[in-house]
Backbone:
């Protein structure tokens, strides 16, 4: 705890801000580097879906002015940075005049709910199962069924999602096919809505979970096998402590730090998987927003959602970093390991 | 408490069956530890000292297993056949361990006080001793006993030096005044000065609490300073045992003599390796169980070697 | 990697197993019976050959289908009483495929781009003035009764139906129309751009009559602007008494306030609930149409548009009867659905299944390319193309070979027939020999590799195709293959949508697979797109020049003056088309395929090729007709 110095904090936050700034710039550049004019491209595409649009040239010109695409690139960039810092992402192309922040404000809670739930479950379940798997006192038959639960580990989450969809939504009809809650409930803090959200969230969460939890399980197991050879574990054994206590306080606890690092590293992959899973289940989160944005070439939405995802990932990694000293007293954040 | 022997080891054998071959790490050894004495167990690297200690503590690593023998605690309890949960009750309260690696012997994510406390909590039956305050006082007392400053109470292991850690290990081991502490090379990872300090601590504790110690090590000089009696191990056998002065003054077994010749200088610490391969080959020839022992002086026994 | 494959196979097997386990076969029994049969045989009898017939008993084994147990006599289905339509039962509800989700679903402004309109707003609520019938070409009255031009097509008089009411009870009348036109004029081009362009002023003559004074003559004023020609009527009339408060920024008006009963339109449904992927509309039993004698209430009490994430999800929903009308679906997905849920039908019973949308596909060739500027070579390509084969391979049978550049709706038949009679129609099959002869007549000869070559230059044709558009990529691949067969070294190059637009503008571009959503009941709009001049759209043949082009332009301009569908426009169409064929700047290939599965489990009387009261798209505004025509199953 004492390891968290102001100097370190400043430096770490400095790095964080730089990451955010760099990614904002990158998002801006990538959007401009794509060949073609996003506004025109978008309108031509609408024409493709809806048939000829009268006066399309005038509409395109109007939109370019409206979205500041007539300005020189440098002016656009400076404006963009200023606006982004204030989370002002302008208007959505395809849902003009809806401001992008309103779309994000609607989508973000769903995505956060999904990823936080997934992460927490994945972390707790994964590490628990991993610990059970590695523990020498676990009955053999339990150990032998654990690997079969890891069968999805090497499958992309999209396939897992389709599989779950097929079995549990289509064949068994235990869960709904798409959406975040049903038409019959009133969003708010009421039980029917909350239960509905859980019901609708189960398959998306599971799709990401069953793919990722395996890595946590295997990581935990490997860590515990290593730790089992440590002197302090033998000493704990010699002390005649309660085996559960030993398992938790001496083994698992010491394995959690590397597991947490692993979690931070896998975060971006998790989020990428979630984008696809949200798309499959039409789950109204950031992933679906980004997907729809790409489909309708809605550049303000694409920029804003990518930026937000990077921001969130960077923030989580920062938080995990700052959490380390709470979990491992050896990390001082001043000179690494003492 | 009926005998003056805290521990009696009879015909203990341990083997490690590995896919290639079975290693017979401990072969039919017998010895006893008297109440309040420090018994030094000495022998070259790989001779089976740790294996023997682990067997007594029932901490053998896979694939090791006890192939035979008995271990009697206080002459009344046979440890190897005791059910797991009963043995667990004896751990720490009767049988404690000071482990070898000073760097790794403490849990890095637990404060020193908690690591001392959890052993006490697991075995202390008197609820009055378990109140927060009683525990705190007891731990402070233990730390003082091993010569550690008060602040150690609340620090994490990484904030301690190697010698301090080892003294924490000793404080921990004696927390419940066990009948026997097994100290497996408690000083080998320390510099020479610290070695002496730790050794002295051990000696003080023994004197104050009357705890018996099985002290494993290669450092004959250290043994001479600390141990009351000494047992010499070679290739899983105890080849010679007796009062430390007696054995060091007149070593009877050729292996003991060789060991003393190859004793490393006081300033360098390294695993004990006996160099004379030819001689070792010869020993293996006559180290065929059952060994017969002859008593060359009172309490000084030597395996027959011709 | 290997592991992954094994896993994948396992997954498939598990899925298959489940599939099989859950599919119920009709019960069959093998039975053996003795039957008497008459046997006719030829026998030698007393040196003579005679034919005799005898009766024999034989054992016959056959597989018979056991009749399913008789269904219990159907009790009348329960009904949801008025006021509770929000909870209408499954058999009272129609489920539609929604093409999108909407990040901000509480916005019912019809001019928001991303198709909030087509998740129910313009199918259930916004009624159009007129609806064009693709088969007959007639513009059928809806809220409007008639719209008549003067002789010079620059003054149009709109007569409104009497008795039309907004859902809040206010009368729908000329004031609303005039107001809407004025709103468009202020807000163009965000809304009503074409109305603003063509209308100088709209005058109220009386409550039910509006006169439009145009900025220029336009025989297609009603057709193009007010008749749901393609997708929807972009120029929906809005209630003045509500929108007048938002006249300064009508695009910002969300048009949603459940307390006030907004959105207010004239349709027989109201918004009941929505999430970001689902919109629920319930029937408004006070709909004006009943009192006005226009039509009965539609039968469905509830309409729901749901967006299911991907085709797999949509197919699962369909199999589970959670969808009644689907958007475009691949053939594979449809067959999977039909196998599990035989109640699904399509526009045609059997291949091609698909209905053709108004955007036929063709091969666009750069007429200014050094090689391909020769019209004879372009004609050779036309001869080498096998349209039936494109349909068979690229579409797996789910489309129609194009006979001309036009979409093949009933309303276009008279034009296409005239082209066929004039020998100008496209052949469904290829004539490779004729193609080769034509190429060779221009001095090209086959080289050792089998390509035509002249002056050391190989005859190549690079076909640009679109990455986002699998159908177009596949057409491109088949065409390239067909051209290689006659000795043209043809390859495809796949580009993203916009890079494709850019590449087509380059001088070195050779050709592209393209499409055009042109006229659906008259030839002018399509033909006008091909000359590259004013009014032509991107994807026409901007580079086409020369005497034939000049003549074509004049012929098309002449066509502009005809009212849509005027029989007198047939001959001018043939005349103009002749110049197009003469120079062949682009080559018609196939019609555009929309495979739209429709579920008859709960609802029948969907539009089909045998019952074409309208077309089967349900994201388009003509779906008003479908909803009014649906009948409960059984
Ligand atoms: N887990 C194991 N598996 C197989 N063989 C083992 C195992 N542990 C120890 N041995 C073998 O048992 C023998 C005795 O080893 P042990 O560790 O008891 O020696 P030691 O006397 O403690 O040596 P040191 O002085 O180096 O600590 C050695 O030959 C060793 O190779
Ligand atoms: Mg050892």
Residues:
């Amino acid at each position: 705890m004492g390891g968290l110095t102001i100097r370190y904090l400043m430096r770490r936050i400095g790095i964080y801000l730089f990451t955010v700034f760099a990614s904002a710039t990158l998002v801006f550049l990538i959007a401009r580097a794509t060949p073609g004019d996003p506004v025109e491209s978008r309108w031509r595409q609408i024409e493709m879906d809806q048939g000829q649009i009268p006066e399309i040239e005038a509409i395109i010109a109007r939109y370019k002015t409206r979205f500041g695409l007539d300005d020189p690139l440098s002016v656009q960039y400076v404006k963009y940075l200023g606006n982004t810092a204030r989370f002002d992402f302008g208007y959505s192309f395809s849902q003009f005049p809806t401001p992008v922040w309103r779309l994000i404000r609607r989508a973000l809670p769903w995505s956060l709910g999904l990823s936080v739930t997934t992460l927490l479950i994945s972390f707790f379940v994964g590490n628990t199962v991993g610990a059970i798997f590695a523990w020498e006192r676990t009955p053999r038959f339990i150990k032998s069924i654990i690997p079969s639960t890891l069968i999805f580990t090497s499958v992309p989450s999209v396939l897992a999602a389709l599989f779950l969809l097929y079995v549990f939504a289509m064949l068994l009809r235990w869960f709904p096919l798409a959406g975040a809650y049903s038409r019959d409930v009133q969003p708010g803090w009421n039980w029917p809505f909350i239960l509905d959200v859980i019901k609708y969230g189960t398959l998306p969460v599971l799709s990401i979970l069953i793919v990722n939890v395996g890595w946590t399980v295997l990581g935990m197991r490997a860590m515990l096998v290593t730790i089992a050879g440590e002197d302090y574990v033998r000493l704990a054994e010699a002390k005649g402590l309660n085996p559960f206590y030993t398992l938790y306080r001496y083994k698992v606890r010491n394995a959690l730090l590397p597991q947490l690092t692993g979690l931070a590293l896998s975060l971006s992959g998790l989020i990428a998987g979630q984008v696809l899973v949200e798309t499959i289940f039409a789950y109204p989160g950031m992933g679906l927003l980004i997907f729809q944005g790409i489909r309708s070439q809605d550049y303000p939405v694409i920029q804003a959602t990518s930026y937000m995802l990077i921001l969130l990932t960077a923030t989580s990694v920062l938080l995990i970093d700052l959490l380390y000293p709470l979990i491992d007293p050896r990390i001082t954040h001043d000179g690494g390991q003492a | 408490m009926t005998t003056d022997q805290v521990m009696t080891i009879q015909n203990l054998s341990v083997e490690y069956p590995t896919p290639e071959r079975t290693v017979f790490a401990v072969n039919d050894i017998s010895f006893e530890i008297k109440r309040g004495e420090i018994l030094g167990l000495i022998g070259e690297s790989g001779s089976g000292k740790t294996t023997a200690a682990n067997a007594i503590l029932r901490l053998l690593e896979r694939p090791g297993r006890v192939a035979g023998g008995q271990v009697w605690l206080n002459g009344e309890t046979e440890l190897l056949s005791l059910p797991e949960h009963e043995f667990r009750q004896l751990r720490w309260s009767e049988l404690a361990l000071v482990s070898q690696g000073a760097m790794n012997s403490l849990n890095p994510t637990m404060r020193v006080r908690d690591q001392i406390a959890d052993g006490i909590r697991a075995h202390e039956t008197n609820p009055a001793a378990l109140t927060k305050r009683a525990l705190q006082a007891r731990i402070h007392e233990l730390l003082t006993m091993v010569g550690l400053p008060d602040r150690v109470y609340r620090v994490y292991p990484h904030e301690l030096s190697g010698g301090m850690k080892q003294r924490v290990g000793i404080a921990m081991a004696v927390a419940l005044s066990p009948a026997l502490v097994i100290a497996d090379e408690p000083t080998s990872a320390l510099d020479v000065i610290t070695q002496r300090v730790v050794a002295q601590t051990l000696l003080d504790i023994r004197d104050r609490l009357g705890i018996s110690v099985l002290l494993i090590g290669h450092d004959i000089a250290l043994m001479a300073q600390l141990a009351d009696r000494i047992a010499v191990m070679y290739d899983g056998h105890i080849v010679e045992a007796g009062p430390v002065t007696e054995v060091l003054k007149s070593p009877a077994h050729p292996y003991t003599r060789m060991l003393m010749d190859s004793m490393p200088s006081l300033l360098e610490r390294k695993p004990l390796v006996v160099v004379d391969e030819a001689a070792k080959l010869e020993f293996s020839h006559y180290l065929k169980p059952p060994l017969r022992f002859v008593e060359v002086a009172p309490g000084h026994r030597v395996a027959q070697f011709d | 990697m290997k592991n992954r494959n094994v896993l994948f196979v396992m997954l498939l097997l598990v899925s298959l197993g489940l599939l099989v386990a859950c599919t119920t076969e009709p019960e069959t029994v093998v039975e053996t019976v003795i039957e008497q049969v008459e046997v006719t045989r030829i026998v030698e009898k007393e040196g003579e050959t005679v034919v005799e017939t005898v009766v024999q008993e034989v054992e016959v084994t056959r597989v018979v289908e056991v009749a399913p147990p008789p269904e219990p006599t159907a009790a009348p289905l329960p009904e949801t009483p008025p006021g509770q339509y929000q909870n209408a039962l499954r058999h009272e509800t129609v489920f539609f495929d929604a093409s999108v989700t909407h990040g901000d679903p509480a916005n019912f402004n019809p001019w928001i781009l991303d198709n909030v309109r087509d998740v129910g707003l313009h199918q259930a609520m916004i009624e159009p003035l007129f609806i064009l019938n693709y088969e007959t070409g007639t513009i059928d009255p809806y809220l409007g009764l008639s719209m008549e031009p003067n002789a010079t097509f620059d003054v149009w008089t709109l007569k409104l139906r009497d008795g039309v009411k907004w859902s809040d009870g206010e009368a729908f009348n000329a004031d609303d129309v005039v107001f809407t036109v004025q709103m468009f004029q202020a807000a163009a081009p965000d809304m009503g751009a074409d109305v603003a362009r063509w209308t100088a002023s709209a005058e109220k003559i009386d409550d039910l009559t509006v006169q439009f004074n145009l900025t220029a003559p336009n025989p297609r004023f009603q057709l193009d602007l007010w008749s749901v020609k393609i997708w929807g009527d972009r120029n929906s009339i809005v209630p003045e008494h509500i929108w007048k408060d938002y006249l300064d920024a009508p695009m910002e008006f969300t048009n949603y306030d459940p307390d006030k009963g907004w959105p207010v339109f004239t349709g027989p449904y109201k918004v009941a609930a929505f999430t970001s992927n689902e919109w629920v509309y319930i029937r408004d039993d006070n709909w004006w149409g009943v009192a006005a004698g226009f039509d009965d209430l539609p039968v469905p009490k509830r309409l729901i548009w749901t967006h299911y994430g991907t085709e797999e999800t949509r197919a699962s929903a369909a199999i589970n009867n959670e969808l009644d009308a689907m958007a475009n679906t691949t053939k594979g997905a449809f067959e999977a659905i039909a196998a599990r849920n035989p109640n699904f039908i399509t526009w045609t019973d059997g291949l091609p299944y698909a209905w053709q949308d108004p955007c036929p596909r063709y091969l666009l060739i750069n007429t200014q390319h050094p090689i391909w500027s020769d019209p004879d070579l372009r004609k050779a390509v036309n001869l080498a193309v096998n349209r039936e084969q494109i349909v068979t391979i690229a579409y797996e049978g789910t489309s129609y070979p194009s006979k001309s550049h036009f979409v093949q709706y009933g309303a276009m038949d008279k034009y296409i027939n005239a082209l066929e009679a004039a020998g100008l129609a496209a052949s469904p099959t290829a004539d490779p020999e004729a193609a080769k002869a034509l190429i060779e007549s221009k001095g090209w000869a086959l080289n050792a590799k089998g390509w035509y070559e002249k002056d050391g230059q190989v005859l190549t044709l690079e076909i640009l195709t679109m990455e986002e558009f699998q159908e177009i990529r596949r057409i491109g691949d088949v065409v390239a293959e067909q051209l290689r067969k006659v000795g043209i070294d043809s390859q495809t190059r796949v580009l993203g949508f916009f890079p494709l637009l850019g590449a087509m503008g380059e001088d070195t571009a050779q050709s592209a697979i393209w499409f055009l959503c042109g006229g659906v009941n008259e030839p002018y709009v399509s033909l006008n797109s091909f000359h590259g001049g004013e009014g032509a759209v991107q994807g026409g043949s901007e580079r086409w020049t020369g005497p034939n082009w000049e003549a074509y332009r004049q012929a098309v301009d002449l066509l502009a003056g005809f009212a849509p569908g005027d029989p007198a426009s047939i001959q001018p169409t043939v005349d103009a088309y002749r110049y197009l064929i003469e120079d062949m700047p682009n080559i018609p290939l196939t019609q555009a395929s929309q495979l739209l599965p429709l579920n008859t489990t709960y609802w029948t009387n969907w539009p089909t090729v045998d019952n074409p009261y309208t077309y089967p798209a349900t994201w388009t505004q003509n779906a008003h007709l479908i909803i009014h025509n649906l009948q409960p199953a059984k």
Remarks:
- Chain B has a mean pLDDT of 85.
- The CA atoms of residues 10 and 30 of chain B lie 4 Å apart.
- The longest helix of chain B spans residues 192-209.
